Amino acid sequence: MSIRTTTVTTWSLEQTSSADLVPVQVPDAASGIRIVRSEVPSPEFSRFLYTAVGGDVTWLDRLPWSYEQWRAHLERPGVETWVAYEHGTPAGYMELEAQPGGTVEIVYFGLIAAFRGRRIGGHLLAYGTARAWDLADRWEGLEPTRRVWLHTCSLDGEHAVANYEKRGFRLFATTTEEQPEAAPPGPWPGAHS
């Protein structure tokens, strides 16, 4: 039996100076949008965000992680989770991870489907990227950030690359490969799409 595959293109983008970050208009207070750092490592909450945001865009790599794997990852120095809320409800998140040489990766970024297309993503991306640039201010012993990077792929939202470019990220690599076809793990039938 042959395994069905799909062609996936991955784009890697970066900023090499905090001056690269293009700000976005901050939502007014009446919008109820706020972004808060999740300061207490919580495998349950982080797994919820991961599955809620990535369920319809085929985020699969962390699904088999054990509780201990989640905990160990979240407790690493320089790993931060920034959560966007609308009137107290989680709308999306960004995960930052410090890497050697003053590099910070935006490992995960996205919104729950019901919150997409409402101008929350640009604000979260700009705010979270600014937090990547000042990450060393919150973590003793980390080198100051000299580069912020991320990758996105053709399985992610159709506006992902454009959103990153609007915030000042520049493309530095593109790869294409065949991957086994996989059905997104969610959302469940009837959820907002």
TrEMBL record:
CDD domains: NAT_SF. GO terms for molecular function: acyltransferase activity, transferring groups other than amino-acyl groups. InterPro entries: Acyl_CoA_acyltransferase, GNAT_dom. Pfam families: Acetyltransf_1 (PF00583). It comes from the Bacteria. Residues 19-187 form the N-acetyltransferase domain. This is GNAT family N-acetyltransferase.
